[in-house]
Amino acid sequence: MRLLTHNMLSSNIKGVTNGFPLLIEAEKVVEKPVDFNPDFLRNIFPKIDWKALVAAARAVGYGELPDTADAAMLESDDFLRHLHHALLQLHLEEGALVCPETGRRFPVNKGIPNMLLHEDEV
């Protein structure tokens, strides 16, 4: 699961009011090469929750993103390459996503998060 995907997931357990961002418990993280596309990064940047992305990147061992970012930084090739690496090349292969409110763990196996809810959580 890419961190781009993580940035768009939340816990939908009944009664949860703050299910975003899901915390990451990483057991295995892999890097997969992806062609660099600065136009894609510039277009997706406004949709990214930056604080959640930085926390997720650090949870998987990547500390190259600044604490804050703004649109002016999109002119920096160095910034774009770090963003590209974090969003698209880092993959959570094994581990779990954890609801920040309930502590419910959603397993991630072979890069696929299992977000299915139990009957009592719907």
Given helix and strand content, the structural type is alpha+beta
Number of strands: 4
CATH architect. name: Single Sheet
CA gyration radius, whole angstroms? 15 Å
Mean pLDDT: 97
Please report which band the strand proportion falls in: under 5%, 5-15%, 15-25%, 25-35%, 35-45% or over 45%.
15-25%
Shape: globular
GO biological process, one term: tRNA methylation
InterPro entries: Trm112, Trm112-like
Keywords: Methyltransferase, Transferase
Family: Belongs to the TRM112 family.
What are the key terms here?
single chain; 4 strands; N-terminal domain of TfIIb; four-stranded antiparallel β-sheet; 122 residues; alpha+beta
Describe this structure in words.
This protein has 122 residues and is α+β, with helices and mostly antiparallel strands. It has a single domain (3-112), classed as N-terminal domain of TfIIb (Single Sheet). 28% of the residues lie in helices and 20% in strands. The chain is built from four helices and four strands, in the order H-E-H-H-H-E-E-E. It has helices spanning 3-6, 38-44, 50-59, 77-89; strands at residues 23-31, 90-98, 105-109, 112-113. The longest helix has 13 residues, at 77-89. The chain is globular. The chain starts with a helix and ends in a 9-residue tail after the last strand.
